[in-house]
Amino acid sequence: MSWHQIMDYNWRYPVIFIYTLFLICISANYVTCELKENKTTSLAVDASVQSGRKIADTLFGIFFEEINHAGAGGIWAELINNRGFEAGGQNTPSDFTPWAIIGNETVISVGTERTSLFKRNPVALKIDINCDGIGCPSTGVGVYNPGYWGMNIEDGKGYKMTLYVKSSDSINMSASLMTSDGLQKLASTNIIASASSVADWTKVQLELVASGSTTTGRLQFTTKKRGTVWLDQVSLMPIDTYMGHGFRKDLISMVAALKPRFVRFPGGCYVEGERLWNAFRWTASVGPWEERPGHFGDVWNYWTDDGLGYFEFLQLAEDLGAAPVWVINNGISHEESVDTANILPWVQDALNSIEFARGDASSAWGSVRAEMGHPDPFPLKYMAIGNEDCGKKNYRGNYLKFYYAIKKEYPDMQIITNCDGLGTTLDHPADYYDFHTYTTANGMYSQRDLFNSALRSGPKAFVSEYAVWQNDAGKGSLLASLAEAAFLIGLEKNSDVVEMASYAPLFVNANDRTWSPDAIVFNSAQSYGTPSYWMQHFFKDSSGAILNPTSVQPDMSASIAVSSVTYKNSEDNKSYLKIKIVNFGSDNVNMKISITGLQYSINALGSSKTIFTSGNVMDENSFLTPTKVAPVQSALADASTQMDVSALPHSIMLYELALSQTGYATEM
Asked: Using CA of residue 305, residue 310, residue 313, residue 315, what is the dihedral sign?
């Protein structure tokens, strides 16, 4: 009997049909054999003005950490890896990887020397060319840099090349953008100079315009002229960056789409370092990029040139219209702890960092900022003292030194402690307490009510790192994102005590998956959002919105989480009422929605429904299927105050109802 015959037979005999399905299920060795059922419930939304409560303006933002090559080889658009030849250390000879030699040892010799023009990064590359003219290979000899797993070179796009060069004689050298095998030339220019003009270090700036494309390109320097040439501080930046400030456009555009209200930076463990000498130091990351020494991040184990420094983070926050949240080192690394009696220089360093951001252009550190092109102060008002350091030796003593010194000079600064104040009164003053949670999907879903029991007085909560991870998450699963969405609904409902929250980590370069999952995955040319990235889109309008009370009867909180907000869209200047329903379970839920208290009528023409689900809870996105798990929006023609809807199994359902007048959200 064929499958179609079985189906026809069993539709006539339903009892036998159910038994047949059971046998098929058992014979296929399925782990679970359950028949999905429809459940029914009612959702009441109170949209009256008197019942609504304003959500904190800063509730949802982003956390950026230099991890997974998120910055170097990531959002910072610099294409050269190890541009100053410092990654191998300041003792020479040193390893200058990933720079590589073109030509064999009979015609060229390459090594590092401490002959740089720049005191803080003294290493330069020395190239001895031991051939001339026809004695050299036909393509010349030299060096090349492949960037971070290959450079993305796009046809018709311009690239600004900067380098410092000196020579024992005149030079005639080609600078070229090439395919990874060095066989196809995409752009090229000649650097020609007399001996007198390059006897000392000379800065060269040129623009290369590509006449072809590759995602694995390289920059190379070649010559057929005998002599010695030194190179240092070689940079190659795309002309077209986000708002012209050096950030990779596609990646930051994805962040901007989330409408983040704050940017927490630069870590994370990156701030601490395994040892203090490898911790991020802001003073070494400001000023001219050529003079920044760079450092080895020993927590995540790679070198950064610190082109993405303190100034650039402040600029990024400004470009995104978000508040900067500056995480500082408080004299504690993973392995060390400065004694409180010796912490004052670290405190002064923190005060200097505030002056850099907020000081007048005539102040000592404010003038450095002004020289970098930003004479107006940055609106820095949030600082975290350390990262995950509560309980470590000297933390409380050090924290208090920072707290009182900062508050004395900048009383409006909001100070964030690493100590958890969720269920207990802190033994030290703070404006916020930092809370991190990494757990299973079930664990995250169960935390949706975690802050219901939080103290309603005292410091506010900053959930600066949350994510489902390990087996439930894979490289970013639907299951993980559903649990996270339920958790965020809980934060919305407790936004009187939780004022800030951000997912972690934000970025991963697919070539360096030190930590999974992450919100945004990229390589040199492509990018996509994981389900956890798309999940955050459902909350991008919640910050500053009005939270409407909701109730579900009968109670289905074991698998259903709901919230409703009213907000004014800054793009079309119209007001909307949003209803979010997270179905964490495997059953379809039929729901009768009833909205009461609306001041204005609903405009069905401007209303929409968005569905977020997939065929399997462990489905992931990829470069080949970047939107396999992504929101799908459609018109909601029957939008009204009374609606019958269906919450699909393992889904987020969003009903966005356009209100007939624009004053609603503002008037509340």
From this structure: negative
